[in-house]
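SUBJECT: A protein chain and its fold
Encoding: whole-number codes for local backbone shapes
RECORD BEGINS BELOW THIS LINE
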Amino acid sequence: MFIGVSVGNLLNINDLQLMARDRIVFAMANPVPEVNPEEARPFVRVLATGRSDLPNQVNNLLAFPGIFRGALDVRARSINEAMKLAAAHAIAEIIPEDHLGEDYIVPSVFDRKVVRMVARAVADAARQTGVARRRGQEN
């Protein structure tokens, strides 16, 4: 597995071929990913990028509206690690297991459930960790 958050064109096909079978590549540099997605596609099992024109777009838009909504709903004093992890878990649980596929491991930024589920998880985590100043709505 490769998770890149650095600079574009860092990897080439030879680098991918050195990896184990069923390669998973998260090439997140933007606007140019660490490896050219069109060239990498035949060599990887799962490919995620920050690009909106490809499947599995990882975008901070998946997290931030929901994190802020959940924190505001309970008037959280801070955003802590438990709240961030709750957001990540909520995003991961949006796609039902029977719908997961190599080109569908990350929900779309347009999926209406994303903000609601992330906000709920973040608010719950804020209450559980004692940073919530009010109970807020329990959705």
The longest helix spans residues 113-128.
